[in-house]
């Protein structure tokens, strides 16, 4: 009995052994499905950079070969350097092999040239010729934390305005009966009730302000509260209002028409209205605003529409910089730009009954209006230089088109970032010049055409910028950062408006600017971080580092890489 059982067990074990041996033999002989992940087929690599050898099969049995360099090593995910030439890279696993063809080039770096590298691992060693280098870092759709480079061996500023979102879909346009039949119908002291948003508490009911006409011109009309003491203790100086009106008449409207096109006229009265209201001063949130809801009929969708093209502006206060005549004038240029561009981009298509008319993204809409201020000659007095100075000292905290480091969208920092980029593009396209006999008159050299095409087309947002410029926006952004990193303190001084004497460009030119009325100064220096500083970048932001004397190689370390982050190394 015992012998019989033993015999059966032995026979069973023999069967198992035969089955196991047979199965192993089949596994060894069958083709293994694996692929080379890196290097990429027909990509260009450089002889001074490490090349990762990896497959989707994690095994130490993988043998790597180059037809030029011979045996490279075994395993998965290790790195090698290869000499210049065309390499056929083979990954052999048992009786199987895969191969890719790659090109390895010698990186030639001469003085003033920059090479770019993709930040794609937590530690990278850059082997570059001895010399002095200017490193930079720019994030596109990605981010990186605790990035550093090592050598081996606030006064509260008011926002110009606040952005009011308006979904144009389904809005009702003004009926013919609501549109004024005759032009130039306003007279001094005419009265009208306005609904004005509470800029501090926007969820509250709007102010109802009874205003009267205090000035009528061919293309605009100025309103002021009939009984201003009902809304504020602020008393406006009539001379200050007259100075603002003079700026509107002689500088702002003529230049904006040249820059962007005709003024909106949705109520067919031939004029844009400006309501100066001290409620904005009292609330201390903005300096003025444009509300596109006013372009539509007053109904359940737009219950507080004023059914006219109107801007809301704080009253001038001599003792406060944010409410000075020049700052108020810059705000008018800013808000009128919003109105013109909304009329061209969105409202003109609403009139054509387009179901989903385009509405410009906030970052670009605000950048165009801030750029408009500078091109009207209010670069310093309007606050753009102040905003730029703040941004330059907080580069890594603000994205040009995304949320900032705190998750906030529309901030002074992002506005400055976006305006600097748009200004760079504007001048790359040729910018403007001035009439030598009349410095108030601007003449297009290519920049205005770029802006007008940006507004007139249906596209919106980041990618649209590149579509109009003629090169992908990501490439343009990296090009700007590369130029900044290369030139640094050698950047040319910004051009000054021959009429106002204020800068019309927005760029870190390492110069000091002063607002004479207040004595306040700003230095537009591009900060250079210490090489070993741990810095984190959010999407579409950048920093530059101090120069380094390279004797062997630069060690790049970081954590938590997401998306595209590009390093820049410029040889001095």
Short structural description:
The chain is 27% helix and 26% strand.
Describe the 3D structure:
- It comes from Treponema bryantii.
- This is Peptidase M30.
- The chain is of the alpha+beta class.
- 36% of the residues are buried.
- Mean pLDDT is 86; it is low at 1-29 and 176-182.
- The strands form 7 sheets. It has a 6-stranded mixed β-sheet with strand order 13-14-15-16-18-17. The chain has a 5-stranded mixed β-sheet with strand order 2-8-7-4-5, with no helix packed on it.
- It contains 10 helices and 27 strands.
- A hairpin with a 3-residue loop joins strand 4 and strand 5 (70-74).
- The protein has 3 domains: 28-107, Immunoglobulin-like; 110-153 and 360-572, no CATH class; 157-356, Zincin-like (2-Layer Sandwich), CATH 3.30.2010.
